[in-house]
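Crash report, auto-generated. Payload:
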Amino acid sequence: MSTATEHSTDAEHGSSHADEHHGASDKQYIVIALILAALTAIEVSTYYVDFGPLFMPTLFILMTVKFIVVVSYFMHLKFDNKLFSYLFYTGLILALAVYVGALSTFKFFLQKG
Amino acid sequence: MADSAIAHGHDAGHGAHVTSTGLSNNKMAMWMFLGSECLLFGGLISTYMLYKGRVNSGPQPDQIFDIPFTSVSSFVLLMSSLTMVLAVSAAQRKDDRNTNLWLTITALLGATFVGGQVYEFTAFYREGLGFTTSLFGSSFYTLTGFHGVHVTVGIIMLMALVGMISRDRIPGNKAETVELIGLYWHFVDIVWIVIFTLVYLIPT
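Recovered output after restart:
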C-alpha cells in the first residue's frame, strides 16, 4: 500500500509537469542554445589558438558541460521524474566504466608488449 | 489509496495507460533504449580511440580532417536540437501548426548535417581514405557512419511524425509522441557533441 502511495506521489509530481508545459520557456531554450553555440565556438577556437596545457582539460570540460546542458534542459531530465535520470545515467556510467576499463587494459598490454 | 494511485497513474499517462509507476511506459522504454545506446556508441568511440593512431597506409587523421567544415556541421546539428525542443514545446501547447513547422525545420537541419557527412566521406575517399585503408579509416567510418544512420532514421521519424500530425493520425497523447521522438533526436545530438571533441578536435 505504501508503494502505491509513493507511486501516486510520483505520479502526481510527474503529471503536474506533464500536463502543463514542463521544462523551460521558449525564450529560455533560445538562450540555452546561444550558450551552447558559444561553448562550441570556444571548442573550435582550440584548433586555432594554442591553449598549451589547458588544451585537453578545456575540451573535456566544454564537452561535458554541453552534454549535461542538452540532457538536463532539452531532454527535460532536470524537470522530469528521477527514474528517467537513473535509467539513462546507469547506461552512461556503465558504458564509461566498461570502456575506460577496456581501454586501460589495452594500454597496459601495449606498454608490456 | 490504490484507487488514488491508479487515478494519478491515469493522469500521468494522459488517459492512455494506467501504469504501476504512474509514469508513461513509452517514455521509460525510450530512456532505457537511450541508456543502452550509450553502450553501443561507447563501444564504437572506444574502438576509434584505440585505433586512430594505427595508420599503416593512407592519410593520417590530422591530414584529412576539415575542422571549419565539421564545425559548421556540428553547429547545424546543435541548432536542430533547439528547433526540436521548440517543436515539443509547441506540441505541449497543442499548437499543431508550429509543431509541424519546427519538426520540418529540424528534419531539414538534420538533412543538411547528413549531406555534409556524405560530402565529407566522399572527400576523404578521394584523398585516399577507404574503409579498409587502415584501422583508423575502418573505425572512423564505422563510428561516424553509425551516427549518420541514426540521424537519417531520426529524419525519417520526424517526417513521418509531420505526416501523422497533419492527418491527425496519432493515437493517444500527441505531445508525448513528439517528446519521445525529440528524446531520440537530442540523443543523436549529444553523441555528436562527444564525437566532435574526441574524434575531430583532439589530434592523434
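Post-recovery validation: The CA atoms of residues 39 and 65 of chain A lie 9 Å apart.
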